[in-house]
Structure formats: C-alpha cells, structure tokens
Design brief:
- This is Light-harvesting protein.
- The chain is mainly alpha-helical.
Length: 50
C-alpha cells in the first residue's frame, strides 16, 4: 500500500471509487423509493388542490 497515493480522506483512488459507486447506488435507491412514496401519497390524497 505504500506505493499507492492516499488522498486527504485517507483512501486510495480505487477505494474512493468503490465508495463512490456504493454511495451512488444507495442514493438512487433512496430517490426511487421516495419517488414511489410521493406518487402513492398523491394517488391517495392529492395536495395543492390539483
């Protein structure tokens, strides 16, 4: 590990890339679930008088 560059976060470039992929997957999962929840509530009881 001494030959790999370590950034300010303490992660190597490959570790940071792996972390970012995991973070993005979690973010898109959250966005999908939140979107479905908002759609379900809209179907149940629309807001803003629409």
């Amino acid at each position: 590990m001494s030959d790999e560059n370590v950034g300010m976060s303490g992660l190597t470039a490959s570790e940071a890339s792996e972390f970012m992929r995991s973070y993005e997957k979690g973010m898109w999962t959250f966005v999908f679930i939140a979107s479905v929840a908002h759609w379900a509530v809209w179907e149940w009881q629309p807001w803003f008088g629409m």
